[in-house]
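EI: anyone free to look at a 272-residue chain?
SC: sure, send it
EI:
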Amino acid sequence: MGIVPSSRSHPSFPAAACLLALLASYCTAAAPIGESSLTALRAAMVRVQTFDKAGDPQRDAYGLVVRRCAVLTLVDAVSGAYSARVTTVDTVWNELTVLKADGGLGVALLATNGPAGCSAEVDVNAEVQPGDTVYAVGIRQLDTGVVRAVRLSTDGAATCIEFTMFVKIPKGRPLVDWTGNLVGITTVRNSDHEDVDERLYTAVSSRSLASFLLRPDSPRVLRRARSRTWDGVALRWALYAFAGFSVLCGIGFIVVWIVSFVESLRESRWRV
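SC: here you go
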């Protein structure tokens, strides 16, 4: 005796599978990376400012704390810099040293004069493939991109990652995969035309960053960054002090003149 299908209509299995796939993709898109991973990575992000000999601003770039007292940033930011300043949420470092720099990779390592509270982990095993989704992490933004190509070295290790985005992002932002692992640092903006829908970027892979960190140091000490704001405040207070001193001297001169005048009047009366 065969099985007689029910008169009620049930959704077919492929339709249910498609519904579950859409639901899973929606959940993944809504929360691509865990909040803990994002919070830890953003806590390690810093602002690197460089200045020329006159104290004028030269460049402004992102930085990432990768060691207790070391910041990974762009080589363009520190190239030719006379002084520099690294700023976090609650700390400012003005005494910095360029430990090493690589123009080919486009990254440099700065040593700070104090320990950082948080640091990012550079995982040599974090890899992506063409077609994977990646995320450029900002202080408040999280922009989505797609890997277009992965450049390999002679030993088959990933050296650079080419990815596209529909928005314009600054160089130096960390690049992570959907699990929140650091896969690279954005160093090159290949297309910079406003009329282009997709913009092409290049990021140095985490494996290349790990190899760069193991290289021997060749330190170059930067001068202490001067704060024009505080210089202006000091100059203003110096002018105020000079003006106050001048006023007091004027008042004193007037008082002395009055006293002398009164004394001269008294002497003239005694003579009469």
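EI: Confidence is low (pLDDT under 50) at residues 1-31.
SC: 👍
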